[in-house]
Amino acid sequence: MSFTSYKKNLRYVAAAAALVVSTVAHADIKVGIDLSSTGPAAAIGITSKNAMLMWPKTIAGQKAEYIILDDGSDPGVAVRNIRKLISEDHVDVIVGPNVTPAALAALDPVAESQTPMITLIGSASVVEPQEGKRVWAFKMAQTDSAMADVMTRYMSNHNVRTVGFIGFADSYGDSWLNEFTKFATLRHIQVVATERFNRTDASVTGQVLKLMAAKPDAILVAGAGTPSVLPQRTLVERGFKGPIYQTHGIATPEFIKLGGKDVEGTLFPTQPVVVARTLPADHPAKKAAMAFVAAYEAQYGPNSVTQFAGDAAGVYPRLVDAVTRALKTAQPGTPAFRAALRSELEHAHELVVPNGVVNTSVKDHVGLDQRASVMGIIKDGKFTYLSQ
């Protein structure tokens, strides 16, 4: 499907929604966007921004204004950006941030102003538990918990009984160790060694030798992006012959480019967009995933799509779905509309987006089930579907 066809599909979604809303003229809908387009998280922010630049200029038949700010991967800047978007630009909804510390820090200004926020982070900490400030936050990406679930299920089905763990020495590694351990215990998989490393480390030889000394059936590297190559390359160089698992945070072209032959055969959980071309024909998100991948790569080049771009693409249909209903009760630019929009974001039902199918509720502000979690493998230098 061409970029033009994809744009036509998005316009169709917007036009179809417009038919069911009131013909009364409404004010423009303002969407405030905070992303890490520079700094350490730029690889995530840039692809998210690229996807957003493909959004139609209307939402549910109403003219939309998108205001995009860069936080430089700095939570303090993110909060200042969001306060500006709320107090000076008077936006109806915030989209982003795309790093966990910034999203958590943003809870204060969005709750104070009662402005709904749709974040792009992986951690569920911004939406769980659903109380207090978190009732104003929603999340597009699948959770670490769901990814650990599908990974340990695959491990169990392939006779992995012991695992060595090496993860980032930060909140990402903490989250993955906690979630992985929980599901590993459930499936009678034992974590026999635990090591940590920093994103900027030049060597992890000591940690790898300790992991290998425990003789695990498999090893999990809990990192994101290109720093995750180092432990895997060291394992390969030291002669580890068992399967190596990584997290969904590796699914960028840069990981494969840097890792080369050392990351061939990597097993990892991911979302449909990353392995769209090899998804089974009956996967419920395949059509939407393929349409987005084709359009994105036509715009930005072959093999350029990422999970993060897919998450950002899914925000638009989420907005169309909720705005369509919110417009029946309130005008954009008002507190009543922001409250109505927050409420309607809780009522997505079987809404297909490029990375899954969304069913939200008062208690669930993510709304993704296991249809948004699949296992992948790096095969012939490409991310390839493996199983659900």
Automatic annotation (TrEMBL):
Annotated SUPFAM superfamilies: Periplasmic binding protein-like I (SSF53822)
Keyword tags: Signal
Domain (Leucine-binding protein) ranges: 29-381
One Pfam family hit: Peripla_BP_6
Signal peptide annotation: 1-27
Family that this chain belongs to: Belongs to the leucine-binding protein family.
Name by which UniProt lists this protein: Leucine-binding protein domain-containing protein
Source organism (scientific name): Paraburkholderia gardini
